[in-house]
Each structure stands twice: as structure tokens, then as C-alpha cells.
Amino acid sequence: MADITFLCPACGKQLTVDERAAGQAAACPQCGKMLVVPPPTTATPAAGHGPELKAAPAAKSGLAVTSLVLGILGLVSCIFGPLFAIPAIICGHVARSRAVTQPARYKGGELALAGLIMGYVGLAMLLLLGPILAGMLLPALGQAREKARQVQCMSNLRQIGMGCVMYAVDQGPSGAFPPDLATLARGKYLDAFKVYTCPSRDTVPAISADQLRAREHCDYLYFGTGMATEGVSNPGATLLAADRPGNHRRSWNILFADGHVETVHGDDFNTVVRQHEWTIPKSGSDAE
Question: Based on C-alpha coordinates, what's the Rg of the chain?
Fold first, then answer.
């Protein structure tokens, strides 16, 4: 009796059985899958008799390699670790399962296991280091936001200074500054009411010029009442407007009569002014 040689359609294992088993169902000794023994006419001939036996397809390991690469990236990327670690774990489980159940078609079980380990370690590191990184980054982000608000606050004071200068020019030879900020807004020199609020505070902008006389709608001190450009001997050291206390923590934005703005640091406003030997006009509406 002749033998029948054929390949298992599930795992590619080469099997040889007696031709009397043709047409019968049997289990593959390699993968355990049930198959039907083909008849001699369709079975793969033995070597030297007809066409040569077709080799089993090469085992694949691409998914296992992918899991390993993603696992390495997840391990070294602390902040973006989950973007790599989670796919590494998923690919690792799938690749390892294939390597175990279909070893003739898929290989790389060890690579998949390494990818799994690195993926899980990357997630664990994120859970441990995440609060530490957040504690380090959040204060820096808060400082950056406050710095941006201070810059916007300085821009507000510059616009107030430009409005005051335009008002003074329109007053002719006297060059008098506006008596208050409400007059500046009422005369349309600067009627964008949000400019009179500091971005570091939750002040509700005024809806009319008269509301700028109330602290609830204006975050800046004004010192230009009764002051004229001709009467200022040193405009670069004479205050025209400044932050109200509480706008910023230990820092003050100050507008001078010549239009420039400076930021200085200190706990007390009057102490800072005295230390720099600046002048606060006694006639100013907010002068103390």
C-alpha cells in the first residue's frame, strides 16, 4: 500500500498516512485541528515522484517586533509613554497568542513577551512618575501664564499712557492730562473698557465711562489729576498710573508721564517708589 503525503491546511505540518485513510477525518498531531485526508490523486507526491512537496509558508514575526519597538518607546517616553505602551501590550498579547497556537505560521513569542514586559513597565513608570512630573510642571505653567498676564497688563498701561498723551496734546499749550480715566474714556481717547482691567484679576469691565470711577471696574491707580506736561520736570520718573494692590503677586507695573512702562518687584508699592526715588504727583486722584 502507498502512503499519502500532504500538508495540514491549518499549521502547515507535513503529514504522511496510509492511503486507506483517504477521505477520513483526523486530527493534526501538530495543531490538533480536524482535517480530511485527501485522496491519493490530490495528495502531495513523495520526493522523486512528480512535483516536489510544497514548503510550508515562512513563519511571521512582524507583530512581535512591533510590540517590542513600541514597548521600548513606551519605556523611554515618560510623558507620551501610554501612546506607545498600550499598543505594545495589545500587539504583544496578540503576537504571543499566535506564536503559541500556530507556531508554524507565526514566531517571535520571545519578542512579544519582551514587548509586553516593557509596555507594562512603561505604564507603571507613568503611574509612579506622573504625579512627580505634574508637580514639577504645574508651577512652571502657572508662572508662564502669570508672566503672560503681566505682559498684557503692561500693554494696557501703555494704551492708557497713549490716550493721556493724546488728550494732553488736544488741550493746547497747557498740555493738561485728563482729570481721571473716566474723562479719557468719555472723550473717546480710549473707550475699550477691558483695557482698564488687569488680566490677572476677575474684574468685570465697565459698560460706561462713569463706571471707571469705581474700583470694581478699574484695576489701575491714576495720578494725572491736575498734572500738565509742562509742569513735569522729570517725566521719566514721574508716575502717571500703576497697578492697584493685588493685581500681581509682589510685582507692580508702572506707567510714567513720558509714556514708558516698567515692572518692579516688592511687597509694598510706596516702598518700591521711594527706593527708586520716583515721584507720585500729590494732586493725583489716587495719590496717597
Answer: 41
